[in-house]
Specification:
Blueprint: H1 12-39, E1 81-83, E2 113-116, E3 127-132, E4 137-148, E5 159-168, E6 174-184, E7 190-195, E8 201-208, E9 213-217, E10 221-224
Antiparallel strand pairs: 1-10, 2-9, 3-8, 4-7, 4-9, 4-10, 5-6, 5-8
């Protein structure tokens, strides 16, 4: 009679114990994975900083950097001016006079325009100079003052200067488009500004309370169009 083969099946208690160990090990492994995923989320380095290489951020208006092709701010160009004493008048040039004795061409008078006062006789009560502008300028600016001979008995005589901008009309005639007048004395200068945009001519007209004097524009200048 043949001997019975040994029964290789393990007792139920051994099988249940192995299942318990495997389940426990899987649970512990899952817990470790969860902790690592929480501690080191995807897309971050071990130091906690985000690794954005190869990523595109949308929906955010980022400040442009200097390397993104933005043009640097260019400096504002300085205002260009032309002094009136560098322009030859078309009319009235004979009324121009030198600076009075005692007034040297320092910074204040470096660009002075000096006009002799009229005699105040019949037909000579005002004097005019006309300058070509040719629509090249925006504004005329100047400071009016005066000087008189020591023999003048009137104390601190008054002068008046009127600047007139004229535009060319379709029929070829000139028509005044703007004007400014200032009164001044040697002791009380007066500044003026006249809009000459689009003007073809500038007329400077002077009158004096008494003769034997000059009207001085100490810093007469024209602002050039850009």
């Amino acid at each position: 009679m043949n001997a019975a083969a040994p029964d290789s099946r393990q007792p139920p208690e051994h099988s249940g114990r192995r299942t318990f160990i495997v389940s426990t090990a899987l649970a512990v492994l899952g817990l470790i994975v969860a902790i690592l995923a929480w501690r080191f989320p995807v897309g971050q380095d071990s130091d906690g900083s985000s690794d954005q290489r190869g990523q595109t951020v949308t929906g955010i208006d980022a400040e442009p950097s200097a390397t993104q092709g933005t043009a640097p701010l260019s400096p504002t160009p300085a205002t260009q001016v032309r002094y009136l004493n560098t322009i030859t008048p078309e009319e009235g040039r004979r009324y121009l006079a030198p600076l009075p004795a005692g007034l040297s061409p320092t910074a204040e008078y470096a660009h002075a325009v000096t006009i002799a006062c009229p005699s105040n006789q019949t037909g000579d009560t005002a004097r005019e100079l006309r300058y070509p502008l040719n629509q090249r300028y925006l504004a005329f600016t100047g400071t009016v003052t005066a000087r008189f001979a020591a023999s003048v008995s009137v104390p601190d005589p008054q002068v008046e200067l009127t600047s007139i901008a004229s535009e060319r009309q379709r029929d070829g005639t000139l028509r005044a488009s703007a004007n400014e007048s200032r009164r001044a004395t040697a002791g009380h200068p007066s500044s003026m500004t006249l809009n000459v945009t689009g003007a073809e001519k500038l007329t400077v007209r002077i009158s004096c309370e008494v003769p034997n004097g000059v009207v001085i524009l100490t810093d007469a200048r024209l602002t050039l169009s850009p």
